[in-house]
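User: As part of a screening pipeline, I want to sanity-check one entry by hand. Below is the sequence and the SMILES for shikimate-3-phosphate. Please return the complex as structure tokens so I can compare it with the automated output.
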Amino acid sequence: MSLPIYLIGARGCGKTTVGEALSRALGYAFRDTDHHLQLSTQRSVAQIVAQEGWEGFRARETESLKAVTAPATVIATGGGMVLAEHNRRFMREQGRVIWLSAPSHILAQRLESQPEAAQRPTLTGRPIAEEMGDILRERAHLYRDAAHHEVNAMQAPDRVIDDILQSLSLARAS
Ligand SMILES: Nc1ncnc2c1ncn2[C@@H]1O[C@H](COP(=O)(O)OP(=O)(O)O)[C@@H](O)[C@H]1O
Ligand SMILES: O=C(O)C1=C[C@@H](OP(=O)(O)O)[C@@H](O)[C@H](O)C1
Ligand SMILES: [Mg+2]
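Assistant: Here is the complex for your manual check:
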């Protein structure tokens, strides 16, 4: 049985972009916990947070994580999935966990050019470059703890995929 592959990391590291391409390379299904939430609630992340607060969103994303978990599936998580210890444990028990790691200035550059405000309401109220620095300082140890492998996410998506496949000893299906 092919275990699910979870992609974790901060906003802008490429979980959604790389995850979709990785699933095609492997012939796996692709799921994204935020997309699942949006479809099941018919609301954006920003709308859920406005109506239920971050606490409400975090409870829903845990449900989303369980709902999308299946064999032979690449799962792009939201950047805050690792905040809850039970999510970190669940991912490590169910599959293989990959941390797409990049410094905060790279993440901020990507987010400034594609802000996607409905998907990424502010976490701290601070400007993006400062927010990403704060978030990485707060979460880096959680990404490290949760991950089976850390991959350099500053590279082009195809190179990121090659590194993930190599770390998992998997080959492209096509
Ligand atoms: N490896 C990469 N190199 C350059 N740009 C990237 C890379 N991965 C993602 N991006 C860009 O960064 C932005 C955020 O990517 P996304 O996949 O939504 O990240 P995440 O799901 O981790 O928040 C998008 O504009 C995407 O095109
Ligand atoms: O880092 C975070 O706390 C979040 C990241 C977002 O996902 P992406 O990492 O895919 O942008 C989304 O889940 C939500 O806005 C919260
Ligand atoms: Mg994403």
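Points to compare against the pipeline: The chain has a mean pLDDT of 97. The helical segments are 15-26, 33-41, 45-68, 85-94, 104-113, 128-146, 157-167.
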